[in-house]
Amino acid sequence: MKRLVGNFIWIFVLAFTIISCDSKPSLQKFFVENQNNENFIVLDVPSSTLINLSDDMTPEDKKTIESFRKINVLALQNENNKNEELYDSSKSKLNTIFKDENKYKPLIKSNSKFGSFDVYFQGKDDAIDEVIVYGYDKEKGLLVARVIGNDMNIGKITQIVNKIKPNEDGMKSLTGLFTKNFEIN
Asked: DSSP letters along 5-38, please?
């Protein structure tokens, strides 16, 4: 009996290990792999740093805003093609990640003179867990911003957007970080 239980435990541990070692690329893995790379800028910003809740918001409005938890930003500058190889390989990895439409559902795709950007989301239409903005331009670089939350509802957010008051101090700090690390025109 002991031997049967022991074998069962080993089979369970082996199966769990195989299942948990998912070799598919993911956005989370991409962030983790590059967070210590000196060529990338990484920012983790709690939503409270960027948004103040105003007095004229209803409890429902406040609940909608509080569904935002944080924003993760990963950016790579490619000025004068100094990071061209890293840019190309990173863009290739990100394009592979975003091809998984079961996980990342496309919202917007746009091209302009400033570069291209795509917006994706994870979750259901009325209960979004993550919104991802992916911008790229061969001469400027690339940026991935993840807005992470719990059951975010885009419809409700657009209804209260005029009531949102930016946190001036937080916005100035974030702008300062970007202008110090990127040449913004």
From this structure: HHHHHHHHHHHHHHHH---S--HHHHHHHHTT-T
CA 72, CA 130: separation in Å to the nearest integer?
11
181 CB-near residues (< 8 Å, 6+ apart): 41, 75, 77
Mean pLDDT of 34-61: 81
Beta-strand (E) ranges in the chain? 40-46, 51-52, 68-77, 105-112, 115-124, 127-137, 141-152, 165-166
Write down the residue that tokens 């210590």 correspond to: 36
Q: What is the pTM of this model?
A: 0.71
pLDDT for 106-161, tens place per residue? 988 989 888 898 999 998 877 888 889 999 999 889 999 998 888 888 777 767 66
Cα distances (Å, whole numbers) of residue 166 to 55, 150, 169: 13, 20, 9
